[in-house]
Recover the amino acids of this structure.
């Protein structure tokens, strides 16, 4: 049996809000595109590591992203306005076809997409999934970011 991903269709989640908890900055390795890597290295020095021809943001000793700062109960990205696109997209994940091990592909299908069929899921480990803003209002910007991310070299 295939391992279930930690994703749910956007229609199931219905809402999302970033509570600035920093869980994503602690739990994940942040992949970045070459253009993003060059930009960050030129501004901040050696903040990127290359592994098998792929680039990632460095982690601090505690396992969190090198740019994560905590202020009381809130987490803040020190490069928020220039953070990598994968960070801007999280917890959203977009696919051209529903993953085989994902649930309810019909609930993930984006209606009237100019780009053919797109399936939008959210990482259910994010505490903001199911809370906050209606996702329908966020989808156009999320899809635009996803398309831009795909064009980065």
């Amino acid at each position: 049996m295939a391992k279930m991903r930690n994703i749910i269709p956007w229609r199931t989640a219905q809402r999302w809000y970033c509570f600035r908890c920093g869980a994503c900055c602690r739990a994940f390795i942040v992949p970045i595109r070459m253009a993003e890597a060059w930009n960050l290295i030129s501004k901040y020095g050696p903040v990127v590591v290359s592994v098998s021809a792929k680039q990632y943001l460095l982690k601090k000793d505690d396992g969190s992203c090198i740019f994560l700062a905590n202020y009381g109960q809130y987490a803040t990205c020190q490069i928020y306005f220039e953070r990598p696109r994968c960070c801007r997209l999280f917890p959203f994940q977009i696919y051209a076809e529903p993953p085989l091990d994902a649930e309810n592909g019909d609930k993930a299908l984006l209606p009237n997409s100019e780009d053919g069929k797109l399936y939008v899921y959210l990482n259910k480990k994010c505490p903001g999934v199911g809370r906050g803003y209606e996702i329908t209002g966020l989808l156009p910007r999320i899809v635009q970011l996803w398309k831009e991310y795909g064009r980065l070299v």
Observations:
- The beta strands are 7-9, 15-16, 31-32, 48-51, 54-57, 68-71, 74-77, 92-95, 119-123, 133-134.
- Residues 6 and 125 are 7 Å apart (CA to CA).
- The chain has a mean pLDDT of 88.
